From TrEMBL:
Residues 46-124 form the Reverse transcriptase/retrotransposon-derived protein RNase H-like domain. This is Reverse transcriptase/retrotransposon-derived protein RNase H-like domain-containing protein. It comes from Araneus ventricosus. It comes from the Eukaryota. GO terms for biological process: DNA biosynthetic process.
Length: 157
């Protein structure tokens, strides 16, 4: 695929890539600089850094991990992470990916503290991205941010 020549083509390209986001881990963080280019008040000045992003996206598409089929009898895990530009999650069973999710953060959410972004990832990933799985099946959520442990339910004795 050739590089987008104008804002409209870039918007189409990002829409197409977003359609594949289930198969591409950490997509929102990778394409965040491209999303900045489609904002109305931004001048579209293309440079080599954007070409590198397109190349990395193409590489991810051609080398995306093989997704496993969901088995309702096996406990699921959702592993979440947050970056300055987006949230990332993988739904997995027995360490095999079932699906990926990678939503962008809004301008307001980008101002959140990192702990708040991690908690947002926990709250939104099960509700938004993996609803059909989380609604009827047991699952565990994992985050790499240690302070989120303080928000986990504790037994009352």
């Amino acid at each position: 695929m050739s590089k987008p020549e104008d804002r409209q083509n870039l918007h189409r390209y990002l829409g197409m890539i977003n359609y594949l986001s289930t198969f591409l881990p950490n997509l929102s963080t990778l394409i965040a600089p491209l999303r900045e280019l489609i904002k109305n008040n931004t001048v579209l000045l293309w440079d080599s850094s954007y070409d590198k992003i397109l190349d990395r996206v193409k590489e991810q598409i051609t080398k995306s991990p093989v997704l496993a089929f969901f088995d309702p009898r096996v406990e699921s895990e959702i592993v979440v992470d947050a970056s300055p530009f987006g949230l990332g999650a993988v739904l997995q069973q027995r360490d095999k990916p079932i699906a990926f999710a990678s939503p962008n953060l809004t301008t307001t959410q980008r101002n959140y503290a990192h702990i708040e972004k991690e908690l947002l990832a926990v709250a939104s990933m099960d509700a938004r991205s993996f609803t059909s799985v989380c609604l009827w099946n047991k699952f565990k959520i994992y985050s790499d941010h240690k302070t989120t442990d303080s928000y986990a339910p504790k037994p009352v004795n």
